[in-house]
Amino acid sequence: MFMVNRLQTGRTHLFMPNINIVMKVDIGGNPSIEAVQRAIEVAVNANEILNCKINLLDNGDAIYERVEKPVYSVEVSTESWMDVTKKYESRIFHLSIGELVRFFILTGENSLQLLIIAHHLVGDGLSIVYLIEDIMLALEGAKLTFKPLHLITTKDFPIESHLNPLMRFGINYYNKKWRKVGKVFLYPDYEEMFQKYWREKKTTIFCEQLSQEELERISRNAHKFGVSINSLITTAFARAYGKRADIGMAVSIRDKGYHGMGNYASGVSILYAYNEDKSFMLNAQAVHRLIYKKLVDDKRKYFVLHFTDTLEATLLDSACMVAYGGYKNKVAEYFTRMMGYDGHPKDISITNLTKLDIKQTYGIYNIKNISFAAPLIPNASRVIGIASLGGCVSFTMHVLEDENLNYEKEYFWTAIQELKNLVSPL
Description:
It is a single chain. By secondary structure, this protein is an alpha+beta fold. The chain has 13 helices and 15 strands.
């Protein structure tokens, strides 16, 4: 008897054409390719979500269903992780049969590298970190604990975070309108939209790393002025932007210590224009206050998940079909605009995994030099991915490869230079 679970809070990811999470680590200790392949197999079998397909029913429900054998690929390549990522960004994941993740063992650098490209429906960025942890534990020879599938629902959230009756009434009003004039989209609709999207688009990822010494000095400055490192980073990217910015941030709602796979993230946003008449630290303190005003308010912290969970699932699907598939429907078009898919995305989107709570050494093997790239979702102009491992911190920025690419490159390096300037006394 197979387990069945309905996709709810993560439904927005189902029809997004650009939703892959990318993570690369260097593996030291000279493991054989065969040993890494075996470790991947052990880790996949230990995570139930990687042993599921996503069945899209005729009524529009999407459910995770256990498959007899996991569907994934392991490819050995001498190409760089960025080249592989670009090559595979336009290759669709076949969710209906359970293809949710791809592994690449890269041998072109001085050390062996492991690259994972995963559909967001297997989990958030931290989920991929914990998958790497499982692979390393298996490589070490440890016995893994089986992690059953667990999908969060709004019932898991604090009571204080629930939508107020007026908001629910408004959403239900549009749900009723959608049920009268909308439609159920199935995988053939998604595949057609996906192919259309990638015929017209390419993306680029910029990447940079700060050393342990640089990060420690930034941390000391953050502590001195009573702000988080994340607030300093956000301020640097806001200053480099040079004008009022709508800044979105992913927020982890994962239980402390839980290393299972799944989507445990919400999001908040702030509006901020860097004030050149004030010091960097005064700006950082202002940014910090704005962020934490949202984070301590459960209604704001969980709002996006409650909102999307209350909407008809197929209405959520329709936003990408309108934006990229040419679908015409007034109700769907209204929500496409509301969700920022109509050409008015967030100016800056930041996903900061912070300091990763996994060890670096596994017997004779170790990991270092992590790079994490978050997906370029439809309501984001540029997405910054941040992760810290072993004292070093990695930055990426994921953008469209279009006529603005030179500007995006200059913007990224200007922001990185702002951070490096923090290494000096302020």
